[in-house]
C-alpha cells in the first residue's frame, strides 16, 4: 500500500518527518477569477504516488486560495522549502496577462542545475522557449502535460528515504550519496544531532552526483549540545591510491613512484599536483579501483595478489568527508626502470593527463612538492613495510 500524501500550504509548518518531499513551483494566480493549476497537480500526485512512505507536497498558496499582497513570511517559507525539497516540479502555464510567473523565472534560474528540477509547460504557454531548450540540452526532465511532469518528478523520487527534523533539509540527491551516509553515520555514532542543513551546490557529470557541498548545523553531544553552524561540508567519491616503492638502504633512500598531473586547485611551485597514482575509478571495490587507476595513470598492470591494503582514512577532515583507501606494492628493478623510461603522458585525454616521477622518501620530505595527504600515505606504507 502506498503511503500518505500531505499537502503543506504557504507559511504552514510541515510535519516533523517524511520519506519524500515535492515542491510545486510555477505561476500563482493574483486574483480570484484566475484558477490555480496546483489543485489538479495535487490530485495527480495522490493518484500516482506509489511509495510506501509519506510524501509531503509544498504548495506556495494559502489553503483558502486567497492571494496575500504582503507576503514577506511566504518568501522565507518558499526559499526554505525550495532548498529542502527532494524535487521541484516547475509547471509553467504562462499567460502574460494572468499568470506571468516572473518569480518562477528566478526560481528556475537558481534551481535548474540542482539535479532536483523537472520542467513542464503546455504547448500554448508564452515565453518558455528558453527554459524548455535549456532543460532539453541539459538532461532535465521535460514534460508537455501536467500529468507527465508529475510522473517525472515522482519517478526521480522513487520510494524516498525516512528523514526527521534537521534531516528533512537534506534532499535525496545528497542524502543518498555514500559519502554523506558515511559522514552522517559517524556523527550519529558520536551522539551528535543534525539540527539544520542546506545544500549549497552540487556538481553532476552525466546525471551522476560527483561533488556536493552542504551547510550544516550540528549539536555536539560531547560539548553539552553546543551548536556548530558556521561550516560547509564538502563531499566527493572516495579514492584509492597505490604507493609503489622499492626498498633502499634506509627509509629515506626508499624509492617511490609518483604521478604529476595538473589539477586546478594545485598550489605547488610548478602548478602541478605530485601524488600517488589513484582515483575513484567508478568502482565500488577499492582494490579494483586502485589497480585500474594505477594502470591508467602509469601503464603498469598489477596482479591483485601484489596489492597490500593499509586501511582507509579521511583526507581533508576540516573540509571534505571523502576518504582515501591506501594500497602498496613493491616493484622490481625492471618495473621501476620501465616506469622511468616511459613517463607518459598517461591518462584519458584532456580530462586526465599524468606523467610518472620517481623520487626517494627523503627527497619527498625535503622537497615540499607533495601535500600532507600524500606524505601521510607514504609514511603509513613505509612504517608498515619497514616492520619497526
TrEMBL record:
InterPro entries: Nuc_deoxyri_tr2, NUDIX_hydrolase-like_dom_sf. Transmembrane segments: none annotated. It comes from the Bacteria. It comes from Yinghuangia aomiensis. This is NUDIX hydrolase. Gene3D superfamilies: 3.40.50.450, Nucleoside Triphosphate Pyrophosphohydrolase.
